[in-house]
Amino acid sequence: MSADTVEQLLLCALSELTERFVTRSQPVPAGLLEALDGDSRRGARELARRIRGRQERNRSEGQRLRHLLRFEVELWEQGLTHVAGVDEAGMAPLAGPVVAAAAVLPKGYRLKGLDDSKKILDAEKREELAVAIKRDAVAWAVGRAEVEEIDRINIYHAGLLAMRRAVEGLGLKPDFVLVDARKIPECPAPQRGIIKGDTLSMSIAAASVIAKTTRDRLMAELDAQYPGYGLAAHKGYPTPQHVQALKEKGVLPIHRRSFAPVREALGLPGPEAAAAPSSMQVELFPAMPSVKTKEP
Asked: Which of 7, 140, 277, 278 could staple 103 via S-S, CB 3.0–4.6 A?
């Protein structure tokens, strides 16, 4: 920004000042707000109000991001540099794999707008954040568990398997792993499961954004391969449109046959009639807790 004096700035059009200090969030010179407050133009006084509002939002966002880093800061202060956040996407859908991501962020990293992917409703904004995270991260990776694995070892354990694959794909061994709500079997590093971790940890939130955007792109590709089911719109979740398509068009190879609506469309008994855990499940995940399904 040029070192304009307050007097010079007051000679500029209000639209230019709005572009500089509201749209582009440039630093506000000392005395400018007070000068705008005393300006006879109503638009100038309104501009001062908007600048103060933007400053307050920036302060609130800074506080939110500092709060999101509290788990990471605690670990960094212990000398644990490479802290990986891990989360998954796609536990509840009727179709497609479950996708997990792991992300190791630089110490002190802050990304404006980063939050749990479920809270970021704008798909374009999620993609922008995913690009920034991948660009800035020390390391990131994606892991997935396919439909056949979901049906064989159940969705809870398949989610854990995808998470483990994501951590193993980082290309480095993390010093510590923060996980959304669970513990990863055979995790290559110490870990901590944090309830609602995607809303409480910057690293887990970053992983949730990568997992969500990766899976959404995959479902859009599957929509082109299997038109008529609306996969790009509902991403495989059990919406009325999806359930109706199952009834009218039948079950696809990418549908999870262990899920009740798919079994119903196939004329199979409900999941409560399924046998005890398979030998594959016992081998991969010994002594795990009872099965729980994470809310979508």
From this structure: 140
